Amino acid sequence: MHLKFHHHILALSALITLAACADPLDRQVQLSGPAGANFAADQAACRQVAKSYTDERARRGTYAGVAVGGLAGAAEEEDLEGALIGAALGGVIGRAEAEAEINEDRRAVMLRCLQNKGHPVVG
What we know:
This protein is an all-alpha fold. The protein has a domain at 39-123. It contains four helices and no strands. It has helices at residues 3-21, 39-51, 57-77, 80-116. Helix 1 (3-21) packs parallel to helix 4 (80-116), helix 2 (39-51) runs antiparallel to helix 4 (80-116) and helix 3 (57-77) runs antiparallel to helix 4 (80-116). It is rod-shaped. Residues 1-22 form the signal peptide.
C-alpha cells in the first residue's frame, strides 16, 4: 500500500473524530428574549423528542460511501486490497456525513419544539 494512502487514512480518522465530538443538540440555544420559567424542563423534553428523530440517510450514506470509496481505493491502489480499504473508509465517511446532517435536523426539531412551547428561540 502506498504511503500516500496511509496519510489519507490518518487524516480522515482525525476529521471523523472531530466531527463526532460536536453534537448540535448540546450547542447553546439562542433566544430573542428572556427564558421562561419552564425553559430548562422544556429544553430537556424537546431534546429527548429530537434524539428520537431518525431517517434513512445514514444507511444510504453508508452504502454510497462504500461504493465510491471502493472505486477510489481500487483506482489509487489498483488491487483488491485498495478497493477494500477504500470501501471501508468510504462507508465510514458516508455514514459520518449522513449522521452530521441528521444531527443538524435533530437540532432543528428541538428548536421548533421549544418555539411551539412558546419560547423566543431564534437559533
